[in-house]
Each structure stands twice: as structure tokens, then as C-alpha cells.
């Protein structure tokens, strides 16, 4: 059975004090509009996200149950330009604290548009989480928008830069539109969960 086929929405939290108890968590982070919701739905094999997406307003951390004690955590998209400064600061501090301190977080999936990988905010997420020593898997989404040659070059470039930072990094091409890269992503995440 596919890794996330039983994925079920459980709760949304606004503040780190409301986080549920968990044994293992995999967090998904990415710039707003990078394709994070689509990627989660593609991995689940159906539409799971129900929270309406109004950037800057409905910024919640969404918990989806994978199995007992295991969660997929959908973090609020970052980088949306029209968010008030105070809201942006609050969410950046929340993301930093979550990535730096969440003990049950076994790995981070970083969603990046294959046409614009490794923006300054993506690098910020890496800087917050990498010191934990836990793995970061990058999905270069919307790969269908690039030619095969462009996609290969982008993959190689991102891989070269991240691999130089240590063995905890991996990267792949992904397309929710073409269902490309699903098995590859599942294999990595299943490994994190000890499956
Ligand atoms: P999020 O804000 O990161 O959750 O992004 P969404 O998943 O809502 O996607 C943002 C936009 O990109 C939507 O219009 C999607 O239809 C589109 N999109 C997402 N993934 C893909 C993909 O793999 N290929 C293409 N061509 N478009 C995509």
C-alpha cells in the first residue's frame, strides 16, 4: 500500500503550545505557491487539504495522521509578499522554533518550484533545520514546466550545492501534474519512518 494512502486530516494549530503528542513527524515546507498542497495530495493519492488558502490569513500548521503516532505536518507557506510585517515575523519565528526544537521531527521535505530553487527563504529553512543532523529531502516541483535538459541541469545544480553541505541532503524532480517522482519520494520518506 502507498505510504500515505491512509493520510487523514487531524488538526490545525496556530501556536506551538498546541502541538499534538507524536512519535514521528515529517514536515513539508515551501514558498507559498511552490506546489506544496499539490505535492501532498499527489503523495496521498487524493485531495486531503481542506483549509482554504488565503495567504497571510489562514496560516496554520496542519497535522495529517499517517499511522498511530505518526504525522505529516503541512507548514505554512512562506514568502508571500503581501503579508503584514508583524504576521511575517510571527510566522518566521514560529517556523524557526518548530524546526529547531521539535524532537519528533524525523525529516524535512522542502518543496521548491524547479524553475526557482533555493531562494533565500528556502535557505533559511535549511539553516534552521540542518543543525539537527536530520535529513532534508528537496522536491523540485512543477518539473513538467522544464525541458528534460533544463530539469536535469537544475537537479544537478541543486544536488551539487546541497551535497556539499553534508550527507543529510537529497533532491529529486517532482511533478504533481504528471505524477512524476512519487515512488522516489515515497521510498525516501518510508526510510525516515523506518518502514
Ligand atoms: P502551495 O501554495 O505551495 O500549496 O501550491 P499549490 O499546490 O496550491 O500550487 C500552486 C499552483 O501551482 C497551482 O496553480 C497548481 O495547480 C500549480 N502546480 C502545483 N504543482 C504543479 C505541477 O507539478 N505542475 C504544474 N504544471 N503545476 C503545478
From TrEMBL:
Residues 22-195 form the EngB-type G domain. The keyword Metal-binding applies. It holds the Pfam family MMR_HSR1. The keyword GTP-binding applies. InterPro entries: G_ENGB_dom, GTP-bd, GTP-bd_ribosome_bio_YsxC, P-loop_NTPase. Coiled coil: none annotated. Gene3D superfamilies: P-loop containing nucleotide triphosphate hydrolases. Its cofactor is Mg(2+). Keywords: Cell cycle, Cell division, GTP-binding, Magnesium, Metal-binding, Nucleotide-binding, Septation. Belongs to the TRAFAC class TrmE-Era-EngA-EngB-Septin-like GTPase superfamily. EngB GTPase family. Necessary for normal cell division and for the maintenance of normal septation. PANTHER family: ENGB-TYPE G DOMAIN-CONTAINING PROTEIN, MSS1/TRME-RELATED GTP-BINDING PROTEIN. This is Probable GTP-binding protein EngB. The lineage of its organism: Bacteria, Pseudomonadati, Pseudomonadota, Betaproteobacteria, Burkholderiales.
Amino acid at each position: 500500500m502507498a505510504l500515505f494512502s491512509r493520510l487523514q486530516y487531524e488538526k490545525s494549530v496556530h501556536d506551538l503550545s498546541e502541538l499534538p503528542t507524536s512519535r514521528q513527524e515529517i514536515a513539508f515546507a515551501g514558498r507559498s505557491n511552490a506546489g506544496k498542497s499539490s505535492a501532498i495530495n499527489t503523495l496521498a493519492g487524493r485531495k486531503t487539504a481542506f483549509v482554504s488558502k488565503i495567504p497571510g490569513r489562514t496560516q496554520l500548521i496542519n497535522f495529517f495522521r499517517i499511522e498511530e503516532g505518526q504525522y505529516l505536518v503541512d507548514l505554512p507557506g512562506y514568502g508571500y509578499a503581501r503579508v503584514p510585517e508583524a504576521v511575517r515575523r510571527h510566522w518566521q519565528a514560529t517556523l524557526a522554533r518548530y524546526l529547531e526544537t521539535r524532537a519528533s521531527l524525523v525529516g524535512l521535505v522542502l518543496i521548491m518550484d524547479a524553475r526557482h530553487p533555493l531562494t533565500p527563504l528556502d535557505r533559511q529553512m535549511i539553516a534552521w533545520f540542518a543543525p539537527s543532523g536530520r535529513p532534508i529531502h528537496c522536491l523540485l516541483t512543477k518539473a513538467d514546466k522544464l525541458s528534460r535538459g533544463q530539469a536535469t541541469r537544475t537537479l544537478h545544480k541543486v544536488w551539487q550545492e546541497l551535497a556539499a553541505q553534508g550527507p543529510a541532503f537529497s533532491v529529486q524532480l517532482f511533478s504533481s501534474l504528471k505524477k512524476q517522482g512519487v515512488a522516489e519520494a515515497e521510498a525516501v520518506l518510508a526510510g525516515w519512518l523506518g518502514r
